[in-house]
Amino acid sequence: MNYPARKYSRVAASVIVSLVTLAVLFVVPTSQRHRPMEFGQVAPLAASSSTLGFADSQFFFYNEEQVAQTVQRWVANNIHAVRIGIPWANVETKKGIYDWSRADRVVAAAAGANISIICAITSSPLWAAAPGSIPPNGRPASPDAYGNFTAAVAARYKGKIAAYEIWNEPNGIFGYRPVPDPSGYTDLLKAAYPKIKAVDPSVTILGGVLGSGKSWSTWTINPVTFLTKMYAAGAGPYFDALSYHPYSYTMKFSEGMYQSDSPVEQLVRLRLLMLANNDRAKSIWVTEFGAPTNRVSEDAQAALMSNMISSWRELPFGGPLMLYTTRDLNSSSVMEEDRFGVYQANWTAKKAQRVVQSPPGTSAVYQRFATVTDPALGDVLSPVFAASSTVWAQLRTSAMLWELTPGQFVLSPSPVGDVARARRVVPLTAFANGYQDFTGSTPVRVWYSPETGAHWGSKEFAKAWVPQLGLATSDEKWVFGGKKIMFQNGSMTWAPLGGTKVWLNQQR
Predict the structure, then answer these.
(1) What is the rounded distance in angstroms from the CA atom of residue 95 to the CA atom of residue 88?
(2) Mind telling me which residue stretches traverse the membrane in this protein (predicted)?
(3) d(Cα 145, Cα 191) in Å, to the nearest integer?
(4) Closest by alpha carbon to 284, among 431, 188, 383, 390?
(5) Beta-sheet pairing, 477-479 with 81-87
(6) Residues 192 and 68 grouped into a single domain
């Protein structure tokens, strides 16, 4: 499943739209004045996983009528937070000359409806772009110049914008050209963070803004690798929360825990990386999630959004969730970017609009898991997910928690749970005496201790195992036409003719 190709093709389409807009703005009269706007403060942003809003990247480019229509729908759907963009390339087209007219209009419209704003600051002007980059998403030649612009935005809209995102999807070539660069992106954080905070200390600054997906040549870097390199470059002190875009059009968010590199599996690894870097207090915000209705049906779009909302609310480290997006640009288009709306272009509601207006809460299954509060299990890392047709599970930092029947829970140490997910099996027994048995299409036993690690063997080895062998020190593997597992005090072999044999060290 190639997440990057699908996700970044959506971004590529937006590049075309932005380039056209950039060309138009070269002839728009500009103003050098960027004094603060004058209107009342807006409600503070509730930075919790229950905060639901829209991400609307086209809102900046709308005319007055379209802006008013969009805000009207936000209010009708009980939306109290939105994510918009203020593109540097469209405000400071020429160095030192600013046109704030579009930005003023969209900020005033949202704030006037008492809607909290998350603002992504992106897009280098031609004069500020690095050599070899392609507008509008070419990296800035000077991080300091980018930082100066973010400070100008923060000064103008102090008290009106609650959070700032530093760039958008820098882990892909369509978000950050000429190539993704974690160290270069970290330089943007280091330049922008202190300058924004000096102007408005109350705002939240979101780092990362990472798209889900696999590493793909020099075009994309998977978000876990990208964040790892951000931390190595010193990004830790320069963001207040991490931003993530867990797009998938074919799999519900909570259903990906058995799929390597799915959006939720990458989320778990991002969270573990944050914990390893002493960032437990920081949350993860989803500032884009959606699906276009030329790739999925309206029913599927609604189901994907419903599952995302419900699953996200289970995560104690989750921040606000922004759905992409309010309205289609063109409901007849074959381009993905044109069809993400929960409304058609003529404002006819799609089925997903009802999900937004009446969002789901957490499930009854989750409510049972929430009663298991033993601190020895560690922090919650994943939503509750279906491990089989009858077994539910949730990953925590120290254990995998399984529900075999309603209210009947068993535990696996985290390394054992990781093996179980990789083998796509569920528990038959509790973990005891250094091992746990699992069932599935290929039943296995997993032996584990902190010293030996977690290692698996098929049921033939489990039946013949004797305690004198100790715990497994290798996984089952094929050797010379048979199979073998190494143990602390010997080994076991299996051959088609000879069956399973136990070899204790003293027998050698």
Answers:
(1) 11
(2) 12-29
(3) 8
(4) 383
(5) unpaired
(6) yes
DSSP letter for each residue of 405-424: ETTEEEEEEHHHHHHHHHHT
Which residue range is the domain that position 218 belongs to?
Answer: 3-362
- Write down which residue in 306, 333, 362 finishes a domain: 362
Whether residue 371 is contained in a domain is answered as no
Tokens 């299996």 -> residue:
494
How many independent structural domains does the chain possess? 2
Is 370 a member of any domain? no
Query: Are residue 335 and residue 394 in the same domain, yes or no?
Result: no
Tens-digit pLDDT profile for residues 48-92:
999 999 999 999 999 999 999 999 999 999 999 999 999 999 999
Distances (CA, A) of 153 to 34, 212, 301: 8, 28, 34
* Long-range contacts (CB closer than 8 Å, 24 or more residues apart) made by 496-505: 499/460, 500/460, 500/461, 500/463, 500/464, 501/464, 502/464, 502/465, 502/466, 502/469, 504/468, 504/469
Q: Please, are residues 402 and 393 in contact by the beta-carbon 8 Å criterion?
A: yes
The C-alpha atoms of residue 456 and residue 448 are separated, in whole angstroms, by: 9
Structure tokens at 441: 């299409």
Q: State pLDDT tens for residues 402-427.
A: 999 999 999 999 999 999 999 999 99
Q: In sequence order, which residues have a C-beta less than 8 Å from that of residue 64 and are 6 or more positions away?
A: 105
Whose tokens are 């280098």? That residue is 124
pTM, 2 dp:
0.92
Question: How long a stretch of residues is the chain?
Answer: 508
Same domain assignment for residues 273 and 383: no
- Cβ of 463: how many Cβ atoms within 10 Å? 9
Burial 344-379 (b: 16+ CB within 10 A, else e): beeeebbbbbebbeebeebbebbebbeeeeeeebeb
